[in-house]
Every structure is written in structure tokens, then in C-alpha cells.
Amino acid sequence: MAYEHRSGRVNSGDVTLFYRVFGKPGGATPILILHGSNYYDSVDWIEVGSALANDREVVVPDRRGWGDSTWSPSKDNSLDALIDDMLAVMGVMKWPKAFIMGHSGAGPTIISFAVNFPQMTEKLILVDSQMNREESARTGKSVGNPPYIYDSVEAAMAKYKFSNPPRFSWDRKRAEQSLVKVEKGLMLKRDPDGANRQPIGEGAALPRRPVREMWEELAMVKVPTVIIRGNRSSRYPAATVERLTKSYPHIPQFVVDSEHDVAGQAPEALIGHVRKIIAGT
Hints:
It contains 10 helices and 11 strands. The protein is α/β, with parallel strands linked by helices and 281 residues long. It has 2 domains: 6-144 and 196-279, Alpha/Beta hydrolase fold, catalytic domain (Rossmann fold, 3-Layer(aba) Sandwich), CATH 3.40.50.1820; 149-189, no CATH class. The strands form 2 sheets. The chain has an 8-stranded mixed sheet with strand order 1-2-4-3-5-6-10-11, with helices on both faces. α2 (79-93) crosses α3 (107-116) and α3 (107-116) runs parallel beside α7. It is globular, with a radius of gyration of 18 Å.
């Protein structure tokens, strides 16, 4: 099925971000959706974004270093840079406020965004977010890694057939959209240094926002927050669910029948929950 939308680009720091826009301006409060960081990009959210845009704009950018966004020459994939990217996208869309929704590895970023910019966050929607990420995963240094190159589309797909796999591993057309032909084979459109959080060059000297553990920062969020998670997701073991329930009883949890790739495996249930959440029901 073809889903009608338009696309654009916006500069943010030393990268150019690609984004997809669904719906028409001037409607209800818009939605900004951030994809995860296993192998995901805005392609995975076309169906969901289109369905949610019947009365508002919905935008899904490719994270810096992912999909059709450019790679940072300074290797700046820090939390600050990711938050600045959100501001750049909302700025080019001329949105003063939005529902902020993020999947998987986007969870830490949107939680920090809500803490730092509550006036721009209507509600925070965490979709199977990685809740056990340690601070080192957000502050570590990793540069000089070789590109992800595979002999064939099938070889690339096989690499992602792990527990709770992304759509990339079971949808060949989806995998083809994320690979580009190079001299030695097929390269994944993903910066191999995407996990680096300590920029090199001039960017290293820039002031940074405080980096906190996710649980600590979640407690600082003042805007309404909800969680949508898969009942078969490895991101939510019993201990995590228990901690969420006991420590954050004010955060509703909606459970859908899926593994981690909620948008790929349970799109209709996800869309239904988000519609109720944005309607305040």
C-alpha cells in the first residue's frame, strides 16, 4: 500500500536531517516520532505516521547517521546533538509544541527533551523504550569503526535475525531500502560511529547538558507520560515492569501483542492506543 507524504531536509549542527511529513498543517497538535537505533529509520513509521495524520501533521526524521540523514563529520551523536536535532525539525515545521513519541533507543532522548523543554512537549509517548540503558551507553566514545558492508541483501537481513528482530530482518523490501551499493558490496545506511557520544574537534569543547541515568531523568519529567510496550519484548523483563509500576504508578502502561518492533508487528494496536492518548481518553 502506498502512503502519501512529503519529505524535507533541515540543517542541524554539522548534519543535514531527512524527514517525512504526513498530514496537513493547521490541524490539531502535531506529533514528532523518533525511530529506534537497532536498525530502524523513518521508513518503519510510514504506516503509523500516515494513520495518525488524519487531523494533524506528523513528522518522522531519520536520526543523524541513519537512513537518509547525513553522518556527523565530528562524530557528534551526543544527547545534546540529538535534542538539538529535535529542535531543528520542530523549528523548520514552525511547531511551538508537539506530542513527542519515541521508540526503543529514542527513549532516553525524548525523556531528556521533555525535561529540558516541557513547554514544547504536549505529552510524552514511550514506545517499547529501552529502560535499562546505562549512562555509559550515552557518554561512551567509539570512533573509527568500519562501515557495515554485506555481500547480499540476504546476508544483511540475517545479521539482524536476533531476539526481538526489527522489520529489516524479515521484510526484504524494507532491507533493500536501507542498503546502498558500494564497491565491495552493499553498505547499510548507518554511521558505524553512531554510538559515539564524545565529539571530536571543536565540538568537544562545547558546553553540554547534564547526562543523567534514565530512571532519574524519568522522575524529572513534569508532562503527562505514557508507555506502550510489547508483551513479548525483551526490553521489559518482569523486574523492569515491576520497577515502573511501583516507582512510577502515575505513568499508564499500554500492552500490545508484539515483540520489540511494535510499529512493524502491531501497527493497528499501536495506532489505536496513540489516538486515545492524544485525544486524552
